[in-house]
Amino acid sequence: MAKPIIVSINKKNSIFQLKKIERKKLYGFRKRLAIDENNDECKRASLTEDGEVLIKSGMTSQGWFIEEGKQIESNEIGAIDENNNELSLIPSTLGINQDLEGPMNPKDLLDLSVTASYSIIPDEISDDLKISLEKGEIWKFNFNFRSDYRMETSYILKNESGYFVIVGVPNQANFLSLNAPPPLEEEEEEEDLDFEMF
Question: For the whole model, what pTM was predicted?
Answer without folding.
Answer: 0.66
